Structure formats: structure tokens, C-alpha cells
From TrEMBL:
Residues 323-337 have a biased composition (Basic and acidic residues). One of its GO terms (molecular function) is lipid kinase activity. Coiled coil: none annotated. Residues 113-258 form the DAGKc domain. Gene3D superfamilies: 2.60.200.40, Probable inorganic polyphosphate/atp-NAD kinase, domain 1. One of its GO terms (cellular component) is cytosol. One of its GO terms (biological process) is sphingolipid metabolic process. InterPro entries: ATP-NAD_kinase_N, CERK_C, Diacylglycerol_kinase_cat_dom, Lipid_Phosphate_FormReg, NAD/diacylglycerol_kinase_sf. It comes from Cyprinodon variegatus (Sheepshead minnow). Residues 316-340 are annotated as: Disordered. This is Ceramide kinase-like. Pfam families: CERK_C, DAGK_cat. It comes from the Eukaryota.
Amino acid sequence: MRGIFKVGKKSHDVLLTRIKLTWTPIIPESPTGDGTVLEAGAVLLQDVFAVKVKRRRAATQQSGGAVLGLALFHCRRRGRRLEEDTLHLHNASAEHTHSWYNTLKELLSGFSSRPRYVKVFINPSSHKKEAVHIYRDHVAPLFKMADIRTDITVTDRKGHALSVMKECKLDEYDGVVCVGGDGSVAELCHALVLRAQLDANSPEKPVRAVLPLGIIPAGSTDVVSCSVHGVRDPVTAALHIVLGHLQQVDMCSFSSNGQLVRFGFSAMFGFGGRSLARAEKKRWMPSSRRREYALVKTLARLRPEDCQLSFLPAKSSNSSFSAHRDQGKDPTKKPDSEMEESWITNQGLYLSISIMSIPCLSPHAPQGLAPNTSLDNGSASLIAVGNASRSEFIKHLKRYSSSSGQFSFPFVETHSVSEVKIRPRSLIGWSEEDSEEEGDSKTTPIIQSERAAFPWNIDGELVEIANDVIIRVHPRLITLYGEEVDEAESSITCNCI
Ligand SMILES: *[C@@H]1O[C@H](CO)[C@@H](O)[C@H](O)[C@H]1NC(C)=O
Ligand SMILES: *[C@@H]1O[C@H](CO)[C@@H](O)[C@H](O)[C@H]1NC(C)=O
Ligand SMILES: *[C@@H]1O[C@H](CO)[C@@H](O)[C@H](O)[C@H]1NC(C)=O
Ligand SMILES: *[C@@H]1O[C@H](CO)[C@@H](O)[C@H](O)[C@H]1NC(C)=O
């Protein structure tokens, strides 16, 4: 379509194609020579999320009013951030404006990945209790503008979202939205995959989640959200949902004793697990202080875990090739028997072992805790830190924030893996040692099992497991609203170590 609208105060020649809308100033035949620079511009339809007819209305008027033209609501990129912007096209002809409106509406309805109806979970008790405000102030207005209907559950306890997701009718929704921190995200990702598995009646094999998940960051770390948005910004996150940007993401299953423990993206054993377990005992502290306290205390009592670490190296292949190879295949396919033989087993002392199927970007570690994995190439990074002195270990940790050389220490090994098995060999678990040192055994009920449990940090959640843990990577098990980013915006420096 082609027509004339005023953009700003000047008349423009406006052209609409299936791809974009462009406007060029109409130069008067005899320029007045006032020196104003007239600007042409363009907006891609893939960035436009709503179009409305503008009318002149008195404050008391509910409807009607003279047509003024169109408003196009679109997103603009600023680095990793998506920002909302409005283009005003003025033309007082009702007929002209309506025919453009209808055409634009029709073109926009062709973007099939954009959701129309979403299930929203808000965790009101996430970090600083801001989730409800964040949703109301930054997200709800964008959803309303884009005509996205919502069905909202404000969760009142841990596990609430999971129980709703197990029961609710999914086929009405186009997507699920989580407003919360890493804990809420982990619960919903686990819930979506578990639900798919239940629906497919496949108790053994994980099944791809049916609905995409949008994550509105409202927590204190927001690692998953940061990995698919590059920033911790609710507006960016909401615009990715509104515009239907979909990114497939690998997930891991964590199991022990032949039982599924949960689905997730990352796990830390050793330092990361112990530090989280310590922090959880100080729930009365504000969360940032709690984390610093636990970090410092765990460093002070640094000790290696004696364990057997086995892993199956990922088949080396570039990501486009592996994406092609796995197209349409079962995400859970067991390794071929020839691969079974390529397990590598090490035994020894480790200060920390992490397994991450996503890069885990955050403002603290802009290139991620695991810079050498991508969101969807079917492999995870295994980072095994052997025993070392405290000062060497601190040097290793500190380098995450500068994103360079954190792995170039003789005691750090990294591998790209598809499966990992960890068998703790020490019989001393964790609760005994800790309650003794803290001297406040009444806050730490110790349930003494035959084998003491070891603390794991799985997506920021404390999970205590006494036995071997098997971690398998499942390619593209879930879809998130967002996109692959290689580096997060960094604004925070951790000064506690
Ligand atoms: C990935 O591997 C495929 C198949 O071997 C090859 O054709 C392609 O060029 C590779 N792409 C990159 C980016 O290396
Ligand atoms: C990451 O990958 C690059 C290229 O594949 C490799 O040179 C580098 O050593 C890897 N780094 C780690 C820590 O594995
Ligand atoms: C996955 O991607 C990362 C980063 O691009 C690369 O270092 C790694 O080798 C890839 N792994 C596989 C199995 O393709
Ligand atoms: C771990 O390494 C440190 C520093 O090299 C050493 O002092 C300590 O004895 C080692 N721990 C064990 C259990 O071997």
C-alpha cells in the first residue's frame, strides 16, 4: 500500500510491504531553504506488535471521536535491550486510515508464533517482593496493547506452580509466563517437561515441552532469563514474548538411584552446593547478604570432595550440523552402544564440579559460567575444579567476572559432555560437619540416613542427594521466549571475594 501521512509535522510518502513500512518526506517543489533536514525511516513489521486508530476524544468521551490517524507500537533494539516505541501516522481521512489499519492488522496476524492467550505465574515472594509490581507496571500494559489474554495465578508456596501445571488444561494456551527468580523458573521448566512426559505417558523418556515459556526476571540472579535475553529487564523479556521470538533450549535430567530428581539447566556439586546449603540455613538474612556470608564462610572452610567423576564426551560437531542431525529425533535417544564405550572416568579430590547445559550468563559473569556451551547444541559444559589452595581457587572464581582465563589453571578441566555420573566416595556428608561448626543444631534437623546426603545446587535450588547422581543432556527439550546471546550486559561487580 502507498499513501500520504504526516510523520511529525511533515507529509510523508508512506509505503507498506509485507516486510516493512517505510516513510520518505515529500520535498516541496520549490524548497523554502529553511535548512531543516527531512528524514526517511523504516520499521520492520516483525518488530510491530500493535496498531491502533487514533481519535480526538474529550476526556469524558468513551468512544467515537474524529479519526486522527494510526499509531504503530513497535520495538527498538538498544544493544541487548528491546524498548517500546510508537510511530504516529497522521491522516484525518477515516476511510484511508481504516483501510491501512485493516491491512496492518491482517499482516500482523500472520506472525503465528506470537501468543494470543498465556498462562501467567507470578511469585509474589521472589527477591524484594517486586514480582507483582513488575508485572503490573511493565508487562501487563504491553500484553494488553498486543491483545494478549492472560490467566494469572499468584503462587502462594513453593510447588504451587508445579501442581497447577500438572492439572490445568494446556491446549487453550499458546504459552506460559513466569514472573519470578531462578527458583520459579526452575520449577516451571521442570513442570512443563514433566507435564509433557505425563501427557505422552512416557515414564522413562523425557518428552519435549509443548508450550513455550516466557521468563520475566524478578529475582536476584535470573541466570536463565539472562541467558536468553542478555539483560535482566522485564520490558525486554515481555517484548520477546509479545513478538513471539522462540529459542529452543537443551535441558538436563538429574537422576539418582534410578529415580528422576528433576529437570534443569545447571548443577553444582562441591563448593556451589555447600555454599548454597549454608545460605539456606540463614534464611532470615537478606538474600544478598546471605549469599556473601555463605560464600565467605564456605571459602574459609574450603575442602575438596572425594569422588568418582565419569563423563561421556559430546560428539564434536558444529551446532548447525547437530541441529540438523537431531531434527525430529527423539530428544531422549539413549547413546548408541559404540558411545557407551567412550566413557571417561576419573577419581580424585574436587573442590567443585559444575554441569551446565546453558551458558548461565549473568551480570556477575557476562560471558557465562559456562561460556563454551550454547543454548541448543545438545551438549553441556563440565567444569571440574581439582583440589588447590584457597588462594588459587579464589583466583579462579574471580576471573569469571572479567570473563577471561578462568579455566586456564592446571587444576581446572573442562569438557563438552552429553552425560555425567558423580559418585561421592567420602562417607562424611554435609550436615554433621556443618551443624558442629555453626553450633546451632536446633536450626538444622539432622536426619541421619545410612549415607549422609550431599548438597547440590540445581538451578539455584538446594537438593540433598546421598547417592550417585546421573546427569543427561536432552537436546532442545524446552522452548523459551528469547534468543541466543553471547554476552550479558554487565553492571554489577561482586566485591565480596
Ligand atoms: C558444520 O558442519 C557441516 C557438516 O560437516 C558443514 O557443512 C558446515 O559448513 C559446518 N558449519 C560451520 C559453521 O562450521
Ligand atoms: C572453548 O572452545 C574454544 C573453541 O572451541 C577452545 O579453543 C577453548 O579452549 C574452549 N575453552 C574451554 C574452557 O573449554
Ligand atoms: C556446542 O557449542 C559450543 C559453543 O559454540 C562449542 O564449544 C561446543 O563444542 C559445541 N558442542 C557440540 C557437541 O557441538
Ligand atoms: C588440597 O590442596 C591443599 C593445597 O594444595 C592442601 O593443603 C590440602 O592438603 C589438599 N587436601 C587434601 C585432602 O589432600
